[in-house]
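In this section we walk through a basic example: taking a raw amino acid sequence and producing a predicted 3D structure, encoded as discrete structure tokens. The instruction is simple. Fold the sequence below.
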Amino acid sequence: MISVAFVLPALLLLGALVVYPVLFSIGRSFFDAGGTRFVGGGNYAEVFRDPATLQAIRNSAIWIVVAPTLLTGLGLILAVLVEKVRWATAFKLLLFLPMAVSFLAAGIIFRLAYDENPDKGVLNAAVVGVHDTFKDAASYPSARARDGQGLTKRGDGSYTTSDAVSPGGTALLGLVGVAPKDLPPEAGPALPAASRQAAGTEVRGVVYLDFTPGGGGVRGEVDKAEKGLPGLSVEALRDGETVGRATTADDGSFRFADLGPGSYTLRLPAANFAPPYEGVSWLGPALVTPAIIGAYLWIWTGFAMVLIGAGLSSLPRETLEAARMDGAGEWQVFRRITVPLLAPTLTVVFVTLVINVLKVFDLVYIIAPGPVQEDATVLATQMWLVSFGGGNDQGLGSALGVLLLLLVVPAMVFNVRRFRRSQS
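The resulting token sequence is shown next.
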């Protein structure tokens, strides 16, 4: 009786918080949205007809296959490597720290990290920085030419000179639409460049901002206060073929040397005016699920590493040392001895993570923006959306909850049996 008295409060809580909700959900899943009309298995049939629910099932399958596999693999590799690190405890603590962060806080952190604006999202800031290091960014996306000032805009966004230029000639290519504050710091006065004469076998020119701060100046002419536009690509065309390329200097000047006799057209390619590279749309429809899985890996890698590390520490060291003494390399020891001996631990970790990813909700709901919520939805989020997030169909939501339970229970039973066998 004393033991029953101690166990009774726990049984009451278990019944109120687990057993009753499960039984109620099973019963509710056989009724319509209002809970008044019995529909039998109609809600379960709807689960496999509704496109949004099918998307949730596909995404959950991706989570089940990808996340536990990657986490188990990363945990195994890190657990083996940490053994060879001098400050192993500090390293384990560092990797395990994300487990102390709530899923809500982690979701907010990664929602900001994945922001498409490079000024806000740290990942896109890094991507844009690397991109711009190896490839010049578009210089002047807002620049344009005035009508009737010697440049004609083409359908592809490029500009070409209206009049042909011959060797020994010069070209003044004036653009507007660039605020003086947006000019590169190295931009110098364009007037000295415009005053240079071209040799008989070359074409010279200057691309400049045809705008005088404070007013004044003459359109189509280079004035004292006007700046050159550095870093622009300029091409020389003859009979439609590109025969020369140049890049404007700090004062906006460019030159094509050793040109043959004839007439040439100068072109400012569209790349000069294209919008700057903004990075990757991490939270777009194509990448939102891998991005959320990446956030999940950040949180749970330390958990997998610690559990596998505990199994690794219990391995018989004499077996490993005997293999090394027999001439086995570290890779052979890892592949043929460490991994097989750790198989029970790896299995438990993998199944535990499968159970966990089936229940993932917070990260998906917080990280995925509204427009792509349906592209990222999993069974847990779809259950909530259908029941309370606007669908107001608790019959279908209960059916999704029962489906989720049916998927989780076998994994839980498998883990319990493994645990009991290990204790016997």
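Looking at the output, two observations stand out. Strands lie at 151-153, 159-161, 170-175, 203-209, 233-238, 241-247, 253-256, 265-268. The CA atoms of residues 281 and 369 lie 12 Å apart. In the next section we compare this with other chains.
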